[in-house]
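Hi P.,

Sorry for the delay on this. The queue was packed all week, but I finally got your sequence through. Input first:
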Amino acid sequence: MMNLIIAIIPVILLLNYVYKLDSHKEPKNLLRKIFYIGALTCIPAAFIEVSLENIFYTDDLKYGYLNLLISVFFGIAIIEELVKWIVIKTQAYNEKDFDESFDAIVYSIFSSLGFACLENIFYVFENGISIGIARAITSIPSHMYDAIFMGYFLALAKRNDIYKGKKDSYIILSILVPTTTHTIYDFLIIGELHIYWLIFHVIATIFSLILIKKLAKENKLFIENQKNTL
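Then the structure:
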């Protein structure tokens, strides 16, 4: 039981933080659906990654840093970010409740942390509480900042789709940017470049938190202005 608690607490805390930031709350049923489906995508992602192990060597440096970087990008990062993205695109992007830019951030985080939650449960039950504590300040926040970047570009894609009838470049960036940050995170850890990993992780975490608070504030002002014009 303690393993389960340790695994899910950081996820619950971050989800609660994001939910409180949203001035116009999204339907809880929709958020639950996105979270649970996001969690389930962890399973096919794991199978795909295992099936590609003989093509992309993501576990050590035996073929050098460049090969490791490419392997992490194609063998881990793009797979995981793509399955999270598919959840948002299929379950939320065309919903009527997706009517504000900040919604994309919320949906992305719920999908990503759903994935991270089930992944974390597997890791903690296999490796123990100490791993759960370590991942609470490393892997879980990294999934969140990947999601923030994904949501930011999905919001731009949605806005362009509505007002300009085009979205392709932002759609691509909504996958490519979080895949890149995910790749850097894993590459630096697997490559044992720990000081660079720490610098990257701290900067990415701080930047993403500043960004999400800025976007939440802008969203609040937007909602207030809408009310004032009615």
